[in-house]
Amino acid sequence: MDLPNLAVVLRAALSHVPEERKAAEESLNQFQFTPQHLVRLLQIIVDGSCDMAVRQVASIHFKNFVAKNWSPNDPDESQKVSVSDKSMVRENILGFIVQVPPLLRFKSEEDRIPLYHIVEEAFPRLLSIFSKLVQIVNPPIEVADLIKLICKIIWSSIYLEIPKQLFDPNVFNAWMILFINLLERPVPVEGQPIDPDIRKSWGWWKVKKWTIHILNRLYTRFGDLKLQKSESKTFAQMFQKNYAGQILGCHLQLLNAIRTGDYLPDRVTNLILQYLTNSITKNSMYQMMQPQINIILFEIIFPLMCFNDNDQKLWEEDPHEYVRKGYDIIEDLYSPRTAAMDFVSELVRKRGKSNLQKFIHFIVDIFRRYYEASAEVKPYRQKDGALLAIGTLCDKLRQTDPYKAELERMLVQHVFPEFSSCVGHLRAKAAWVAGQYAHINFSDQDNFRRAMHCIVAGMRDPDLPVRVDSVFALRSFVEACKDLNEIRPILPQLLDEFFKLMNEVENEDLVFTLETIVDKFGEEMAPYALGLCQNLASAFWKCMASSEADDEADDSGALAAVGCLRAISTILESVSSLPHLFTQIEPTLLPIMRRMLTSDGQDILVPLDNYVSRGSDHFLACKDPDYQQSLWSALSSIMMEPNMEDSDIEPAPKLIEVLFQNCKGHVDQWVEPYLRLTIDRLRRAEKPYLKCLLVQVIANALYYNPSLALAILHKLGVATEIFNLWFGMLKEVKKSGIRANFRREHDKKVCCLGLTSLIGLPVDHIPAEVLDRIFKATLELLAAYKDQVAESKKQNDDAGDDMDGFDADEDDNDDEEVESDKEMGLDDEDGDDINSLHLQKLAAEGKGFQPADEDDESDDDFSDDEELQSPIDEVDPFILFVDSVKGLQASDPSRFQNLMQTLDFRYQALANGIAQHAEERRVEIEKEKLEKGNAQ
After folding, report:
1. Taking a C-beta distance cutoff of 8 angstroms, is the pair 419, 457 a contact?
2. What does pTM read for this prediction?
3. CA-wise closest residue to 766 among 709, 830, 805, 704
4. Concatenated DSSP letters of 841-854
5. pLDDT tens, residue by residue, 483-524
6. What is the per-residue pLDDT across 203-220, written as a single tens digit (0 to 9) for each?
7. Sign of the CA dihedral 789, 791, 792, 794?
8. Helix pair 526-549, 556-574: axis angle to 10 deg
9. Is 418 exposed, middle or buried (0-12, 13-18, 19+ CB in 10 A)?
10. Residue 693 vs residues 640, 719, 807, 850: alpha-carbon distances, Å
11. Which H or E run contains 302?
């Protein structure tokens, strides 16, 4: 299925007509395994000219397909996704991510000039101060604070790119000598606080952390040859040759504290392990680690993976905090344990040939010693670490001989017995590991049943962390269960335990399990739908109250509330063919809808757009309640509120646009009230984006009914004021030369339609001099719109072209890495197979991002990623313009002739170009209609 047809099918999947939606879903299922289907979905997801709703459907379809079909649950099962498609997705996924709105925008060279001046003036003095501070013997703690401040200045200066002054080898070396001095220097023993929470924030440990932070940044961002632009490769090679290895040696020395039981802050440990993990794929660095790899793996990494005193203290004193930390993504960024798991994963993935077997033997030996020891001396904490390691390596072990054949036996012998362990953290870890392996092909289904029933029993465990881990593991077992009769008898019990836990813990991930159950059982959830929605609504209100009560707290409460809404949506979808249930559920959901659709709730645009655009007839005809009056009351109260910020009322003009476009010819009585409202707010608007939206309301009113709208503008005495403002905004440009206003394709199109609608009005409505301004402004706008549409298409085509050339480029890139190692006197070993061409391309793309000229206006405001379906989607502005001009020529030849005579050569060329393009568009549209008809 080609791209245009796939987009048509995805749009049909949104249809409110069940037959159309079902046909689209069947079509997607039919073609989902065809070659390049995944790649085409990605292309639609990043296609800025494609309707946002279609892109969202494509995104959901892509996510679900990958989750179910990327790696078969049974290792012996044939691959459903071709190797070539997998390769193409892997190579392009990061490149596509940067195209997904909103784009990150880097400052232009011009905007960074002040920084360069600061660096040029301040850095030599900072270096001198830094050097003197480092040389002080027995420095007081105040010196640490000063050094930390200098480190933070350096960190801020190198975060995006290295200042040009530091490219001087002598200058850079002077800084590096000082940083490595700080890295090597032991932290003073005297004066260290005893309290671990205060100790980690002590000045000298902060200096150590910031030093490592800076060196990591230099290493990972600027010292990697594969990520660098050509002009920076010399710097990267110099860093690798002169500093990277020395830093690695210092890091290994610091990590020795873990072996000896000395203190090392968690954040410092995490940063050092990140450096080691990044070094695994670099042949030169791995050669340095290789002689010590056993010490690193078994005496540093593995102990970090084991349950420790801090875990035990938190488990006993604050189990809720233990759960939160265990499932908090932010905590993972700072956790030594997570960094250790990442190191093991990367090591066996990239250097598995020489490390996987010995690591597994090490784990098996722990299992053996634990099994043989008496209960009093069993190494419980080491067993916990071994289980964590086995769970971490799940994907690798499921695909690797001879381990994949032994997984079921391993689970039965070493994991399942811990479901009944006297040690709580082992019960929790057993649940987690079982969940990781729920999808393997059990030769004995009794083992699967045994594990699942132990997981269900774990939901009633006296320890909260065990209950939480059991719920998460249950999700995997529900997904993997081939016979739902295994679950049906205990479904009420499951739901009951689930909601008991939701009353204790606010966690978005909990809701994923419920969604999986609902999705799996579909309409069978009907008897439970009301109760589920009531419980979820109750949980929603609790989460919202928790989130609002503490503004300084993390977002777990808000995320859990979102999860509740998503689960409710899943339930409603599962019983969508049973509308009688909706009347029972409505009283529970209406308060939530009111809460989320008020000014302090979520954006009202999407739901109200749906009501107006999809149910236009009912919206217009219904008088009890009067929806038109209700919409006016809501929008007028928002737009007239003097204390509301510009950004807070942006949905209001968008909704007025929805009204005029979807109800053309049926809301004449509302044109004047909405124009009065819009003009009043326009005079008070400050943000350029809001001004654009409000002017577009006027453009939409003109497109709705040009005579009526123009008469109202004259009646209000604002016609000249509005058109002068509009034309001024059209001419305004930013420092870079791009338009300051109406920068989206949609903005330009709406303005074109509004202005074009005026061309056909008689002379008593539009004087000749005004027509001249309208005509020229519309020509320039159409030309800009044409260029923008062409550029969007070119970018999409280029993305497709890039995919075609990726395989060939990758070999060149690997050769380059080997060559760079040889230049440093190093031999190539078993292959640095990291695929980083896409990262290199990202670096190149980052350089080409458009600069944000004005700091007070986000470019995200002007992206086309939020567009909803609209009747004007089918209106071609070029054809409308040409037809309007032809109409003027036929109805008033002399007026047309006078207009043409006012055009200079440039405008004549523009007019001819637009006329030619309009005819091309007629041909293209007819061709598209024909192809669409043939496809059906």
Report:
1. yes
2. 0.63
3. 709
4. HHHHHHHTSPP---
5. 888 888 888 888 888 888 887 877 767 778 888 888 888 888
6. 999 999 999 999 999 998
7. positive
8. 160
9. buried
10. 16, 18, 45, 22
11. helix 302-305
